[in-house]
Amino acid sequence: xxxxxxxxxxxxxxxxxxxxxxxxxxxxxxxxxxxxxxxxxxxxxxxxxxxxxxxxxxxxxxxxxxxxxxxxxxxxxxxxxxxxxxxxxxxxxxxxxxxxxxxxxxxxxxxxxxxxxxxxxxxxxxxxxxxxxxxxxx
Length: 138
Description:
By secondary structure, the protein is an alpha+beta fold. It has four helices and five strands. 31% of the residues lie in helices and 35% in strands. A five-stranded antiparallel β-sheet has the order 2-1-5-4-3, with helices on both faces. The longest helix is centred in the C-terminal third of the chain and has 20 residues.
């Protein structure tokens, strides 16, 4: 079973681009370590869960997708209040009105922590083997 949540955000494009979360699946709440509430968390609440190294990229990527009306994909590292770190892969798609303006973003967020950890363990094993391997030749 994949750990994939779905979401939707309403978009406003006036002088500044703004989006607000209007839908989060239960899996989105689980991924972000939040209790489901009557309304999804704000973009600021979500940003507080992003690792500081990844946080500046998120609004730029979303804004570029809104301004260009293009799909986006981005990887993030989350830091939950209990100290848990998670890795997620986010895919977003703009919804356009008849004028071609982006009015909504819809997408998925996949918890890829297990895959990230397995890849890191495999890489460490390869490095260990490489260090043990005797060199031949001159």
